[in-house]
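Hi, here's the filled form for the chain we discussed.

Project: internal
Contact: R.S.
Residues: 240
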Amino acid sequence: MRKHSGDGRPFVSAVIVAAGSGSRMGGINKQFLELRGIPVVVRSMLAFENAPCIDEIVAVVRPQEIGELKALAEEYGVSKLSVIAAGGATRQESVWKGIGAVSPRAEYAAVHDGARPFVRPEEISRCLEAAEACGGAALGVPVKDTIKRVDENGVILSTPERAGLWQAQTPQIFHLQRYRQAAELARRQGLDLTDDCQLMERAGTAVRMAMGSYENIKITTPEDIALAEGILQRREEDTD
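And the returned structure, exactly as it came back:
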């Protein structure tokens, strides 16, 4: 039986994963860095707040940051936030904790990196449409640069054909029951994967790529802050 949001469409829960250690940002949790005065994770949550297809938001942070995120959500009016869960030791564990906290009504889960603050509501909707068509979907963009496979010494082994190569982004949206089955399989096999699509692929579920945006960057290193500021400036100029 389908679980609807009340207007005939499926109930969709967003799981915003923001429990990273900040190791590549000098120990600073990138999720709480401010861009033009607004924390990165808040910008990420607001994208889902403003997406009509999203019914609730579950955030996953480090235990010591739960209170801070709750205060920020109240300050910025993130009304869809229903649960703030404590993250695990790995990304996969943190996602699993978030999935475990979604509403019983949820039929789809949209897993998103809290450090991707520039996803647009229309891109979220596009990804959900693709997920409904086959059970799973991820935002992504075609690779622009030539990719090289190298060995442990940096010697080039091969050059994959660029046609058909995509860079995966988030959100990655999955039929919740299928995702849970795939995640349980990975746990039984002792796998710790960094990409949720891998769970579905290994379980035999097709995952479709939906066109994202090259602006949907993940803020990971200090160099990304300057790039993020440039994206914000362009967007502000476009609305003037």
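Let me know if anything looks off before we file it.
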